[in-house]
Amino acid sequence: LRPRVSVQDSALRTGNFSLRIAPVRPEDAGLYEARVAYDSQLQSCQVNLGVVTVTLTPPSPVVENEPLMVSCNSSHQASLVETCWFHDRHLVPTSRTFCSLHGALSIFRPAMSDAGSWRCQLRYSDNEIISATYNLQILGFDGPSNPVVYAAPGSAAD
After folding, report:
1. Where is this gene product found (predicted)?
2. pLDDT-above-70 percentage for the chain
């Protein structure tokens, strides 16, 4: 995993043998084991790293009124039972605008008001709940629907 992996040598003296992976990739999911020998003692621990990915189709930038799909996937091995989506902490119901199916959310006509924090919450058959957040940015006009600007001849108008 080099060069994405590091161990803080200075922390080893205090008994901290943490492993840091940055950035995490989907293929990093799995079981990790650490073994530390000190004098005649052998210490070990295991950590299972799960990875959650959120992808956008088509990829950024998202243009206002052009359909998009946000997908949420996890390396968790149990069967997916339910997917819930939240926008700015509010549950998003299925409607003419939003359709959720198998971990993906389709937004048929994204508006500027759809920009911001989106969170998917995945619930599995073993009752494990996994969530991930995605900050959606949308290119478009954020202003009145029929803007009128007055300017005097010879002046500048924005």
Report:
1. Cell membrane; Secreted
2. 97
Indicate whether 17 pLDDT > 90.
no
* pTM greater than 0.90: no
How many whole angstroms separate alpha carbon 110 and alpha carbon 98?
9
For residue 74, the SS3 value is strand
The total of other beta-carbon atoms located within 10 Å of residue 103's CB is: 17
Give CA angle at 153 (150, 158), nearest 5°: 45
In the numeric block, the tokens 């009124």 are attached to 65
Region for residue 36 given its phi and psi (left: phi exceeds 0; alpha: psi -120 to 50; beta: otherwise) = beta
Domains of the chain, CATH where assigned: 5-49 (no CATH), 52-139 (2.60.40.10)
Tens of pLDDT, residue by residue over 70-99, are 999 999 999 999 999 999 999 998 887 888
User: Residue 10: enclosing H or E segment and its boundaries?
Assistant: helix 9-12
Strand partners, 152: none
